[in-house]
């Protein structure tokens, strides 16, 4: 059974900090992760007085499973989320990792007032169609191999809780969700979309020698194309920057918000 009908689903969320506090941040995880994997960044921002919401994307964690996993579908879901204290004002900051960065990009381009700023962690903005088969094979194979001990061995900078949360999240994601997320997006080319975002956009790219998804070439092109865009490479960090260097992510979030017009 297949369907091309696009409709939003109600996402499961976790919250840290006072619900009516400002600034308000929304955190969007990557493929095969979940809201709980943001625990370090979320707790640190809440300690700074922020209201923080992290969502399970469709097909992940406790959120509904569905037939469609196009980026437009993912974006439609997150666009229904608003800060609990003042839903009209929108998010002060959206932080998205990997797939979550792509989803945030599409959502912010569709609705310019949804977020005042985006902080994207090694976002996946380009997936050539010729790579789809190999990517699906690799990602599905990883689902059966993830356990905390193996994750810590492969990622020595992670906290033990990061490994536990990631392994738990991966067990809740099916090969179907992984495959459809890749194949429902035949033209995964988001550079032009990112260049059209009016909100402030800051990208933290992984170290290019650690298998970064976001390249310096992409960053240079987008910096030239958009006055609201800039990027930096986090030396030594692999793809999951929020696990390798959560302190850097929190510091960047605070600095990005402090630099927004009208923020005291």
UniProtKB/TrEMBL annotation:
Pfam family, one: Abhydrolase_6
GO biological process: acylglycerol catabolic process
Gene3D superfamilies per record: alpha/beta hydrolase
An annotated Gene Ontology molecular function: monoacylglycerol lipase activity
Domain of life: Bacteria
GO terms under cellular component: membrane
Entries under SUPFAM superfamilies matching the protein: alpha/beta-Hydrolases (SSF53474)
Domain AB hydrolase-1: residue ranges: 26-251
Descriptive protein name: Pimeloyl-ACP methyl ester carboxylesterase
